[in-house]
Amino acid sequence: MKESFTNALLEWNQNGNTRAMPWKGEKDPYRIWLSEIILQQTRVEQGWAYYEKFILNYPTVQSLAAAPEEAVFRLWQGLGYYARCKNMLAAARQIVTQYHGHFPNTYDTIQSLKGIGPYTAAAIASFAFNLPHAVLDGNVFRVLSRYFDIDTPIDSTAGKKQFAELAQELLPHGQSAAYNQSIMDFGAVICKPQQPSCTTCPLSSGCKALKLGLAGLLPVKTKKLVIKKRYFHYLVLRYKKLIYIRKRTENDIWQNLHEFILIETPEPVDTASLQASAGFREIFGDIRYNIDGTSADFKQQLTHQTIHSRFILMTAAQKPEIQGYMAIPEQDMDNYAFPKTITDFLKKGKLSLF
Ligand code: SF4
């Protein structure tokens, strides 16, 4: 059963797989790594343009390692999960200092790089060096759980071990790159999360889930995703042509990105209640200001959080000192990287309300 699974998959890859991606067949470990980091938690359609931008701006690991952090963050802007970008830059610098600019070529050394886990290490090791390491991502979990009818939860320790062992057993000798690519593509275009193409599936004759009518119930997960709601009130304060921003340094979302003066509340509140709050009074004290307008709700969905942001446009009567924030010329805003919510707000030209 295992052998026929692998053979059918490779056969499909050879004759039926039309999934196009700019990095497909790529052998350069730097480019493979870049694509894998960009694609973590990002759809291929969105990641594609970013991948091309990065390759254009930083064609080698040396050029990426030498780039100023702010420039790399700006290029990353809109992709989210900025820890990935920070780790990517750290890993590029690690490759230059520890490995003289040569991308490491063993699974363990690849995995020792910042931000690289078992999945990415297996992808690079197999695609670039054809090393025998099976990838295990959401697509692989889904395909294997359905084809072999395995209901061990994929987010349990036992499940991870079971699937990792099976994935490794299925890997054909000397064909790691082709096999890994096939199973990921197969999960993305045929054995999809919703409405898998079972009727035309080239693996249907051996698929246990299809036989038992269980495809819709697999894979199994133990934990339900809990999504937290957060309410951000951005005070877009301007004095003449200066605007107040800061860099987010806390261990939280959007680390290293910039933002306007922020007050967060656990529930939605209106502007009057916000003005009366201790947080607002602590920031503004006896600073005289005018409120020029309030935006609608800007919603950004992250994996575990929904961020609701409102922008309150304000002008100060005298130049204020706001602790933790800097006043920058408005025309310099382009030099800073902001989270998507703020760039969406800026793109809509909302600052022109001033
Ligand atoms: S028959 Fe359906 S469930 Fe089974 S591998 Fe094919 S697409 Fe997936």
UniProtKB/TrEMBL annotation:
Cofactor note: Binds 1 [4Fe-4S] cluster.
Catalytic activity: Hydrolyzes free adenine bases from 7,8-dihydro-8-oxoguanine:adenine mismatched double-stranded DNA, leaving an apurinic site
SMART domains given in the database record: ENDO3c
Alphabetical list of Pfam families matching this protein: HHH, HhH-GPD, NUDIX_4
Domain called HhH-GPD: residue spans: 38-189
Keywords: 4Fe-4S, DNA damage, DNA repair, Glycosidase, Hydrolase, Iron, Iron-sulfur, Metal-binding
EC code: 3.2.2.31
GO molecular function terms noted in the UniProt entry: 4 iron, 4 sulfur cluster binding; 8-oxo-7,8-dihydroguanine DNA N-glycosylase activity; adenine/guanine mispair binding; metal ion binding; oxidized purine DNA binding; purine-specific mismatch base pair DNA N-glycosylase activity
A GO BP entry: mismatch repair
Enzyme superclass (EC): hydrolase
Function noted in UniProt: Adenine glycosylase active on G-A mispairs. MutY also corrects error-prone DNA synthesis past GO lesions which are due to the oxidatively damaged form of guanine: 7,8-dihydro-8-oxoguanine (8-oxo-dGTP).
NCBIfam families: mutY (TIGR01084)
Family, as annotated: Belongs to the Nth/MutY family.
PANTHER family given in the database record: ADENINE DNA GLYCOSYLASE (PTHR42944)
Protein name, as recorded: Adenine DNA glycosylase
